[in-house]
## 1
Amino acid sequence: MQHLDPDHHDGTSQASPHREAAKRRPGELLFALALSALSLFLLWDAWGIENAFGPNGLSSPRAIPLAASFAMLVSAAIVTLKTARLPLERAETVFRDILPGVVMLFAALLIAYGILLRPLGFLPTSALFLIVAIKLLARRGWGWTIGIAAVSLLVIWLIFRILFSVLMPAGVVPEAEVIQFVRTLFAQGQS
Amino acid sequence: MAVSILISFTFSWEVYPAIALMIGIYMGGVYGGSRTAILLNIPGAPSAIATALDGYPMAKRGEAGTAIGVTTVMSFIGGFIGIGVLALAAPLVSEFALTFQPRDYMLLAVLGILLVGSLSQGSLLKGIFAGALGIAIGAVGRDPLTFTERFTFDLQLMEGGISFIAVMIGMFGVSEALLQLHHVHTPSLRQKIGRILPSLATVKKHLPLSLQTSTIGVIIGALPGTGGDIAALMAYDHAKRVTKAPERPFGEGAIEGLVAPETANNAAVGGAFIPMMTLGIPGDAVTAIMIGALFIHGLNPGPMLMIDQPDMFWFIVGCLVTANVFMLLFGLTGIRLFTKIVEMPRAVLIPLIMLLSIVGAYAVNNSVSDVYWMLGFGLFGYFMRQYGYPLGPVILGVILSRLLDDNWRRAIISEREDLGLFFHGLFSSPLSTVLFVAVIVIFVSQTPLWARGKAKLFGKTEKTA
């Protein structure tokens, strides 16, 4: 069967550029080591799970966590060993192919979004995020960027706030009051 | 990705419209993935990977309309065959499922995780790691039986567990959006759309192949843990072997290269609902998400659902039929409009996907901590993808963790915690034996041991993967 990687879609994605199973991508060994360390930590933590109602037998609450973390550790350790034996892919670099500046920037933007969401509220945080993100990626004028961001945000807000009734943090925007004001306005117009 | 993001918005809905929406998105997503595969050579869904192999070469020749028309009609045919098999087989399977013991459910869960791990990526070890990670994530929080804290690290935040929706949106949505940043400046090619509706002669000519590949699709879809992506790749491979004289070589715009994966991946949709509805075990990642959604709506997918609420089963079948019909109608009439959407600049699309992911993760529990989990898993999933770790088993592991845990404990308690008795029981039931052997065979077949054994047996030297 022709093998194509479903997670990399067409197999020609830059996520797996010139990918050869016989070579190790930059940072791959470090990632495998980190996964092994995580597995070991989880195994140690799972061993500490105590059954409050009886002995720590095969049916105790630790059984499946222990089995899962043990499977993680064994598989991660073998993957690490196998990865270590592979020659490094010299055509790739971490900062160009694995974690380019744009990905790091967006990771930072997402984290900033998470931090600002509660204090600022959904609308201002999302507006800021979209303007910065679209400006960075599209490299177009401010008018175009703000226009696209505003229209997109309005559509998303209308669909999810009004249609799906999703209550996002209001923050500094008196969202409920504005909606109530608009509803009252419409109600007066109809009467 | 679409289902994972949109599912969280339906939690406040009545169960029926919520299910209808999810099915529509699922069906539309499987079909719609072919659109970008043909026009941009970037499949919109993993199930459309094989479609790009011949679809894009056709589009480059100016035959994008024909390619889209063929995929639409073939998706419709495949979809109907899958739904037909679901309607016929599910009631029978659910009756049989009533005889399942807890150990059988446990073995089915293991089988599902192993299958998706070994088939989707090719590296069993990475698949096992991903599946086990999913099970560990699913175990976070208080144990429902003894209320013991597991993997909580004494943090109150973790006592309630990690929302599987946050894990899923992060792993599928955010990681995909981050990955797409690598292509952000790849220009979208404008394709000329010519004749759309394929001729009756074309449909007739490829009908036998579509029936064969639909069968592959249904079977692969019905296996726990395997979905449209694997079905499409296997069907493509089948088409290459059985088509003696394609009009054009495979990989250069062969229509058979479109017919096979598109019928198979849509047939796999109906197939994937069989284990979900009858056993409560997901057929693929999307049905795993739907099982989670059904739980949230107070329903418990499995044989009892089919007996207690047969209306729900037939409602799902009805929704699938409706979605399939509308897929054909919208697919054929809206080609030009959808092509415009495909041409939407990624510089706008990627931030919007990220924003929708954030809204989706927040909407589940109105909790900012879910957003943090989602972002964390998004970044982690990005690295997993970069280094070839499959994400499907993680999601399946999270969903199946509870089922595995409950059934293992039930099974071992009923055998008085005696492993000897457990294995005796395993081999005294034909079903348990078959499932256990299947688990072992799948596991061993991915190891160098198997390749060496085969080489010895057949006297050939085979290179191990």
## 2
Amino acid sequence: MSSAGRFGEYGGRFVPEALIGALNELEIAHNTAQNDPLFLAELAELHRTYTGRPSIITEAKRFAEYAGGARIFLKREDLNHTGSHKINNVLGQALLTKRMGKKRIIAETGAGQHGVASATAAALMGLDCVVYMGEEDTRRQALNVARMKLLGAEVVPVTSGSRTLKDAINEAMRDWVTNVADTHYLLGTVAGPHPFPTMVRDFHKIIGEEAREQMLALTGRLPDAILACVGGGSNAIGIFNAFIPDSAVRLIGLEAGGDGVETGRHAATITGGTPGVLHGTRSYVLQDANGQTVESHSISAGLDYPGVGPEHAYLHDIGRAEYRAINDDAAMAAFSLLSKTEGIIPAIETAHALAGALVVGRELGPQANLLINLSGRGDKDVQTAAQYFGIPL
Amino acid sequence: MTQLDAVMAKVRAENRAALIAYIPAGFPSQQGCAKAIQALADAGVDAIEIGFPYSDPVMDGPIIQEAAEISLKGGTNAADVFAALKVATDTGVAAVVMTYWNPIERYGVDQFAQSIADNGGSGVITPDLTIEESDRWLAATNKSQINPIYVVAPSTNDSRLAAVTSKTGGFVYAASLMGVTGTRATVSSDASNLVSRVRAVTDLPISVGLGVSTREQAKSLAAYADGVIVGSAFIKLLLEAESEEKGLDAISHLAKELAIGVREGR
């Protein structure tokens, strides 16, 4: 395996031998595509005419009044087709699936955003699509289950283990081991075995590339800090990547603190976890003394994952990025605040980054410019939010 | 030379295949597991694999998943795995541990290998450890003189088969099909192809697993494989039994049938 699959001591491949051939095939397909102007042009055209790229930047002036007066800019990935950044990766991998001659994609989903994006790409490109979703999540996100079915995908509720995202990934891996000859596993985050962390980052890095130019044009300088929520970490890597060489720009990942990291009921993997191996990659993991994965907890289904992408683990260890935990209540307060001050209802996942901005803005003061990846919109969360705020439905 | 090496040499001399049984530590209970190991050894299995139950077993089908869940709910930890290994080796059969990688890393790579050796174990099967990630593990297994056993699959190409088997000790674990563990009505024809391809690159014994549950299947595999691995079929009997005692009788009966099967294949 190439060293490209490792981020310091993290990353790599911890998978059944049965999958090595498919991972090698995917690595080659991805490397070839990244150097193929035709592929890049096809993807760029799809982003222009289907995704709706480039996504705009909105300055959140009224919201910023609650953040110590710092200027706050939102990178509007919520305005992409299907409502989140997830479409960037899905279109890229679906094109690769066709290039590899495979007819079927499988995907895991937590909140349903990646599942909806996968079902969308499958419909667009004429691929069969099966989405694995924890039974618990099919209840929390019933609307997205219906959306996936309307798009022609099959949704399989997963009843093993904790019945959430972690177990949906297990079930998707089992399907892949069995059907790898004609099936591509369209993994939705920057985790999993090589080449997924690198490939998914490559498909999302457009977020940061656009934002870097937009911020220079808007403000004449680079932002002081960039904030993004981190579950597996795909939207965060997407916006961080272009700024990694800009050492003066602080990169801040906001993890799901659940009831509080000190309670043990959280999904803040870097803040509260330890190095280990989960789902084919070495990274930080929420685990017990025997190496068993511990169940994560978060009000946000999309962040409710006991692992995290290996590049985040590396960026943390070398001190290039910092990671903080935001509790459920702080995230929901920021969710409400953005809705009422800007007329933008964010995804609950994204609300963790917004809550982080309220803190970081006060730390950095009124001279600071903060860029937040507004990774998804909150339509899917209306039921959860209504329940949380006591709004009768 | 480990006890497993000796057992594989012995069955080769007897012109038959070895019968290798899998049972997770702590299943159906800590004591039940010890009794099951004894029953399997008494019924004539040549080697036993003790499973380290894991929270995220991506190579396992519903039967072993359920057993692992029961075992973990019972609090099974690394010490219980080594205790079960000791029970197995004390019966006189060769014994190994089968585990996903993370529990080894968490326990300590060198310490894990040494604890296997200290409890009389012959080796460890690591279904999700690739050879590219194996440097520390191979140093540890070498130091503790135990067999690092790798799994190969029908999708493994010939050059990679050579690379993987060059790191392997004890036997090569050949997965009979593309898929997860579980009983199947027929053993895939991929198995004989894979065994021939492995034979072309190594002199190591080759054991076939995944999907084997009957004397007939054991017999057909024993025609060309050096070992036949059975796991889910035993676990299913224990899960479905009305009582632990009846479950033990059932696995004893099946093990005896399989032991005949591995002797009538050639």
